[in-house]
Amino acid sequence: MPSLTKSAMVLCKIQTPDYSRMAAEKKPLPGISNYITAEGEKRLRDELNYLWKVERPTVTQSVSDAAALGDRSENAEYIYGKKRLREIDRRVRHLSKRLEVLTIVDKPPADTSRIYFGAYLRIEDEDGAEHHYRLVGRDEIGDKPGYISVDAPLGRALLGKPAGSEVEISTPGGLRSWYVLDVHYAGNS
């Protein structure tokens, strides 16, 4: 194998991505939005505070009490407590990192006649059934019924559409279409 010259080694080093620098800059993943509503951000902060200030101290105390009983290898309370602490710490790390990169959207857009992040919308599917949704970030899915992610195929298709428009998306069941009946934002129904 031929040896590399010093200039070739420098060139190789320059072309190698600096992953530590990229991680430090906290660049968002492509195709994933980092938007959240003010209500969603408050829910995440409340969960983080509860886990850190209430749940973790309680579990830490129970692990300490279980450890004082003696043999830890067969102590179910100790083993479960340590497992629960790992789960809490993992969730605390996740929430802390997510909250650092999220962009809070707490005001309606300038054009409230179109569907943008945070919009409440009423749409009709091709079978004539009416659905009520709110377009939110991925961290808020599951908070309330009717929340759809801005990153979901339907959410992406609806972005920027006014009332009266029709959207079509390809689903595993075939091409589906929806008709936008109404768009409004919190505070201006």
Plain-language structure description:
- This protein is 42% helix and 21% strand.
- It is an alpha/beta fold and 189 residues long.
- It folds into two domains: 29-105, Helix Hairpins (Orthogonal Bundle), CATH 1.10.287; 120-184, Roll (Chitinase A, domain 3), CATH 3.10.50.
- A five-stranded mixed beta sheet has the order 5-4-3-7-6. A two-stranded parallel ribbon has the order 1-2.
- Strand 3 and strand 4 (130-136) form a beta hairpin.
- Helix 3 packs antiparallel against helix 4 (76-101).
- The protein is elongated, with a radius of gyration of 24 Å.
How would you briefly describe this protein structure?
By secondary structure, the chain is an alpha/beta fold. 42% of the residues lie in helices and 21% in strands. Helix 3 packs antiparallel against helix 4 (76-101).
Q: Taking all residues together, what is the mean pLDDT? A: 84
Number of helices: 5
Query: What is the CATH class designation of the largest domain?
Result: Mainly Alpha
Report the principal-axis shape. Answer: elongated
Rg to the nearest angstrom? Answer: 24 Å
CATH fold annotation of the largest domain: Helix Hairpins
Q: Can you tell me the number of structural domains?
A: 2
User: Any guess at the CATH architecture of the largest domain?
Assistant: Orthogonal Bundle
Q: How much of the polypeptide forms β-strand, as a percent range? A: 15-25%
The rounded distance between the terminal residues' Cα atoms is 72 Å
Q: What sequence of helices (H) and strands (E) makes up the elements?
A: HHEHHEEEEHEE
Give the class from helix and strand content and strand pairing.
Answer: alpha/beta
Order of strands, main sheet, comes to 5-4-3-7-6
- What oligomeric state best describes the polypeptide chains here? single chain
Report the CATH superfamily of the largest domain.
Transcription elongation factor, GreA/GreB, N-terminal domain
Tally of extended strands? 7
Main sheet makeup: 5 strands, mixed
